[in-house]
Amino acid sequence: MLGIQTFAKLLLVSISSVKRRYLARYANAAFFMALFCLAIGSTGQSYAAWYEAKGQAVIVNGNKEKARRDATEEALKQALLFAGASINSVQQLTNGLLEREDITISSSGEVDHLELTDEIWHSDYVTVSVRADIFPAAKQCTAVEYDKNIATSYFMVENRNHLVEGKIPNFSEAVTRKLATEMSAQAQNLNLAYIAPHTTRWGVNGLEENVRALSRQSNAQFVLIGSISDVSVERQRPSSFAFWKEEKATRYFSLSIKVFDGINSGLLLQQDYVTEAAWPFDRFTDVDEFSSTFWRTEYGKAIKKQMQQLTADINETIACQPMTGRVLNVAGSHISVSLGRDNGIKNGDELFVYQTSEIIDRHGKAYLQYHIYPGAFVVENAYGNTARLIHKDSGIVANIQESDFVIKR
Q1: Is 36 left (phi over 0), alpha (psi -120 to 50) or beta?
Q2: How many CB atoms lie within 10 A of CB 133?
């Protein structure tokens, strides 16, 4: 049997190997060093590890405080991701770090201890180092393993006059597609599977019905709607005493989103994402909002960062939502449903069928009432986006109708 010291050394060698492969992929973002605690307890205990990470951020318009915050957040996020912890509290922890001069914070949960160990200021960017004692995240639910499909349409731009400068009429499409790209890269089980090729003004009237309609049309369980309220540009002309200087331009970005369960139109997440960054183009430049040139600007990077945060927020919100689909067809003793291998369904899985009805109380308020069909159904054949089920015990499917619902817990 290996001694504790030998075991610890082997662990460190293994971690270093993984770290080198990780660093090869993320060399330009941050670097990591992990050291396991010297005291290793009994078998089955969750171990914490110290992680050191560096983050960098560009100083825009002389705003050093924002650059410092961005660099700290980047370092902490990379450390958490590398350690296997969740990143839902990154912003909260970062803000806590920056509130006081000693730059030390302790918290319960995955991050046990956190320190800002160093910051180095350069002419146009800052490098921040953090050191964190992190416990890897425990699996919270079985549903986290299932693919979550989301449908949306191009985000509505509320004031299209904001798109005149730069001539970016397709800005909403570009941002929506950038979100799809970031979601695919960042979240393993999260897919922006369907984007309706038009913008939609989601008013209050008929909202729930429209959400359910988009969910049915796309065969996606979740629906994301978004509205961009600000893409304006603010220009600061140099004073008459510094006429040789170029004017500075700042462009804003403000996005409001809602995420619904498309099956019952329940609101799961409502959030605003606001940022600003330098706009490097003059008043007369035509900008291609789909181009790499645009997305490599500080403004493009700032929006991309908001898309990454939006992805993390959605993932955190719906990770443990049970996978739900619809009954497509009832034929004899078999039913076909709108869940399949693309959703992680496989032969032998057990699903449950239920119906919903609307009831109205004496005050006129509407509620959904659920009627669960007795027993479980077993997947007999799983296909791409559908599956054929049979009742686990009796094989009877009486009273089940098309448009009923099926759930995998």
Answers
A1: beta
A2: 17
- Kindly report the length of the chain: 409
DSSP 144: G
pLDDT for 18 equals 36
The CATH number of domain 4-134 is 3.20.20.80: no
Q: Please say whether the dihedral angle defined by the alpha carbons of residues 346, 352, 357 and 363, taken in this order, is positive or negative.
A: negative
Distance CA 69, CA 94 (A): 7
Residue pair 373/354 in contact by the 8 Å Cβ criterion? yes
pLDDT tens track for 275-314: 999 999 999 999 999 999 999 999 999 999 999 999 989 9
Tokens of 287: 């900008």
Return the closest-CA partner of residue 193 out of 383, 384, 381, 355.
384
Q: Is the pLDDT assigned to residue 221 strictly greater than 70?
A: yes
Report d(CA 101, CA 113) in Å as an integer.
16
More confident: 26 or 398: 398
Question: For the chain, which residues make up each domain, given as ranges?
Answer: 4-134, 142-318, 323-408
- Record: fold of 142-318: Rossmann fold (3.40.50)
Per residue in 234-250, pLDDT (tens digit) is: 998 766 555 556 778 99
Identify the bridge partners of residue 357 per DSSP, sorted by sequence position. Answer: 369
Helix pair angle (90-97, 64-83), 10° resolution? 130
pTM of the model: 0.67
- Cα(408)–Cα(268) distance, integer angstroms: 19
**Among the four given CATH numbers 3.40.50.720, 2.40.10.410, 2.130.10.10, 1.10.8.60, the one describing domain 323-408:** 2.40.10.410
Q: Which helix (H) or strand (E) holds 303?
A: helix 298-318
**Are 378 and 349 in contact, with CB atoms under 8 Å apart?**
yes
Is the pLDDT higher at 118 or at 109? 118
- Contact criterion met (CB below 8 Å) for 31 and 74: no
SS3 194: strand
Each residue's pLDDT tens digit, 338-357: 899 888 899 999 998 888 77
